[in-house]
Amino acid sequence: MEFEFDDNFKKKFFPDTKPECLQDRKGEPNPFENIYDLYKNKGSIVFKTHDMLDRFVSYLLLVDTQFKYNHKHEFYLLKSFDRYVLTRVLTFSERIG
User: Fold this and answer.
1) Which residue of 4, 18, 79, 91 pairs with 22 in a disulfide if CB–CB is 3.0 to 4.6 A?
2) Read out DSSP for 33-81?
């Protein structure tokens, strides 16, 4: 599943300088810093695992705590990706067990 960024989305979540919430304040690495570094120069992300999707959404919520309300369409699209992946996992486990 691929999620493409439009220009406004990219400017907000992947600006030229790291968002303030990622700034290193205590010398401890931020677990979401690699998401910023990986996708700041790209126009989309392909979710290969459910964990990748969860980490991406967590990053978006870190940058914009009101992401769910400020970017409703993107939020619901990502939520539908999440439901799709979970449905596949549940269907696969029912076939095995």
Assistant:
1) 18
2) HHHHHHHTT-SEEE--SHHHHHHHHHHHHHH-TTHHHHTHHHHHHHHHH
- Tokens standing for 28? 């401890």
Residue 55: CB atoms within 10 A of its CB come to 16
Identify the H or E element spanning 93.
helix 72-96
> On the CB side of 58, how many CA atoms lie within 13 Å of its CA?
13
CA–CA distance, 61 with 66 (Å, rounded to integer): 7
Q: Is the pLDDT of residue 11 over 80?
A: yes
Q: Which two tokens stand for residue 11?
A: 């400017």
pTM (predicted TM-score): 0.81
Residues 6+ apart with CB under 8 A from 9: 71, 74
